[in-house]
Amino acid sequence: MTILTLTDQPVAAHKADALVLATQPDGDGATLAPGHGLPRAAATHLKGALAAFGATGRVDDVHTVAMVPGVAARKVVLTGIAPKSGDGKPTADTLRLGTGAALRAAGTADTVIVDVPAGTEALLAAAAEGAYLGTYAFTAHKTTGTSAKGGRKTKSATGNVGAIRIQVADAKDRAAKATLKRAETLSAATAYARDLVNTPANVLYPQTFADSVAARVAERKLPVEITVHDEKKLASLGCGGIVGVGQGSARPPRIVELHYTPKRPAGRIAFVGKGITFDTGGVCIKPAASMLTMKCDMAGAAAVAAAVMAAAEIGLPVAVSGYLCLAENMPGGNAQRPGDVVTMRSGTTVEIIDTDAEGRMVLADGISLAVESGADAVVDVATLTGACMVALGTRVAGVMANDEPLSRRVLASAARAGEPMWPLPLPEELRAKLDSSVADLQHKGDMYGGALTAGLFLREFAKDAEGTAIPWAHIDIAGPAFQTEAPFGHVGKGGTGYAVATLLDLAASWGAK
To answer: Which one of 120, 264, 431, 448 counts the least CB within 10 Å of its CB?
Structure first.
């Protein structure tokens, strides 16, 4: 397990496997960021190396130099911290990305020293988060040779680096310590979400997902109340959406409720996560190539679980609830069919149009339960639509809401968290696409505006028993939840843990509304 600590010892004197130093643009090249505190000989040597490498000083420009004169660390990792375009001024986002890229480049190590410009709480937090998540490696199913009994040893899921020490002016500063502790809690939660997403579907399915969450709450001794609704309870609750999606699988669905409630909470917010542990598309089956990454279709539930637990671990003064809507979408003999009609928790009847549009069905039941809890607002997170990826690409999430102030708060939290999100509309003229001739609603429109009609469908369930709208926002993370292309910054291939940071920031700020 990676451990974050502060240090104020002379940077060149640290005996470590690697020393990370920041670089910034300098004319046509790059130079060391100010405040590095290196001896002159070491600084001169590294500036010469930057020129030889053709370094730019921008994010994801990383170079490694071994045996630097006057530096005790075995190697120095030089990482750009400036934006890839513009005036080159570093930000919290670029510092997070830059330290993450450096730790990925550092490889396996016992100790890494990180010396980057982190003079404010926001910058220190960004550097710590990037460093921690840059070490992430999912190795739970890697083997390390033969055990004493002749079988293969299996590694645990852990980071590549044992300890990360962040260089600061005063390692005893209370504010800096508190900032580091919070950054470590958030980073560990994000890593846990990544673990869940990366776990194969034959290992992680609705019941084992619930078991994992319960085990983590117990292990970390968190003040979180857990309730698991099995398929019989879901049927008795009238949750026809999730029951219908899960009925084609031998592994029945679950809704897991997580409730963190401090004394005299300053507010109440509820998160709902889509947790399709594997999505074949059901009887509307996907092409084979499209199924390869479908273990990631539970990334929304992973983010919600991790965020609620992090809120409890930090001790936020706000009540935070999570609803994990867990199901496997399989084409078994009892699978639902296009044309079927199901009755949702809210009492609304829904005609099934496409069994591969299952996420909105499980979320709708979860949203109804969250509304019934009396939360001030409900935010759902889901790998919901390919249409959102077509619109925004693979690194930006879409945000839709029935409440403009809530939308602004989600976007502000995303900006602080370094998770790019963009507002999308809910055009009223598209609502008619969800009209059904045999039920109250059909769950999908036509090929146009697919992300928006999905949002319009979910909006129908963000209402109380009298039909009054409850503040609700939907975050479509279909693109950024799973990285299939080359790693960047603190994000490697596979599960990213996207939205954990945004949800935690939103919960933390909720009491200040």
So the answer is: 264
